[in-house]
Design a protein that fits this description.
This protein is mostly beta strands. Helices cover about 5% and strands about 40% of the residues. Strands 1-8-5-10-3-2 form a six-stranded antiparallel β-sheet, with helices on one face. The protein is globular. It starts with 9 loop residues before the first strand and ends in a 5-residue tail after the last strand. The chain binds fe (ii) ion (FE2). Fe (ii) ion binds near residues 94, 96, 141 and 143.
């Protein structure tokens, strides 16, 4: 499907808005029977949640022991997670199985490192407060807090994540190292 192409990754900046739905009110999950939401719709959802600051700020927690994350919504066609990032915390290279996704930065800034299996080349880009990044199911990245301040982000996936493949950069390029499965590994 064309919208799943990695080349369709886009980043856009959304202004912070108030009086919009938070986690509890979300989402308008599309028409009945719709199995997957578009990256654009996921971007809209995370943007609205970030703008409803009262929906995430009282909940978010920071942990030096391990990166903190909490699923806030699980629906048939998507799920939504709240994540926090202390300086230096990062995900490592991973994909999202068959899921499309989007994330919005609620506080601080994140660095996204893009890579492709079998290749050494990486590309970095910055996601600052209020920015929304959307992506298709072929997307592969490492997300990190490379800044000196704490960061918070809201992530949405459709369909809900069932597996994520993990990768490591080697001398011969990015290599698959394993698969993590929902309910078992996170
Ligand atoms: Fe990811």
């Amino acid at each position: 499907m064309a919208t799943d192409a990695t080349s369709q990754v886009s980043t856009s900046r959304h202004s912070m808005r108030r009086a919009t739905p938070g986690f509890e009110g979300e989402p308008g999950s599309g028409s009945p029977g719709q199995a997957r939401l578009s990256p654009a719709r996921l971007g809209q959802i995370v943007s609205e949640i970030v703008a409803a600051e009262q929906s995430w700020r009282p909940i978010v927690h920071f942990s030096a022991e391990r990166r903190w994350y909490r699923r806030r919504v699980l629906a048939d066609d998507h799920e939504i997670w709240l994540l926090s990032w202390l300086p230096g915390q990062h995900t490592g290279f991973h994909d999202h199985g068959a899921a499309r996704g989007a994330f919005a930065v609620a506080q601080g800034e994140l660095r996204e490192t893009l890579a492709q299996p079998g290749r050494n080349r990486v590309r970095n880009r910055c996601a600052s407060t209020g920015s929304v990044t959307t992506f298709g199911s072929r997307h592969l990245h490492d997300v990190s807090n490379a800044a000196a301040a704490r960061a918070v982000s809201v992530h949405a996936y459709s369909p809900p994540l069932t597996a994520m493949r993990r990768y490591a950069m080697t001398a011969s390029g990015l290599a698959l190292t394993g698969t993590e499965r929902a309910e078992l590994d996170w």
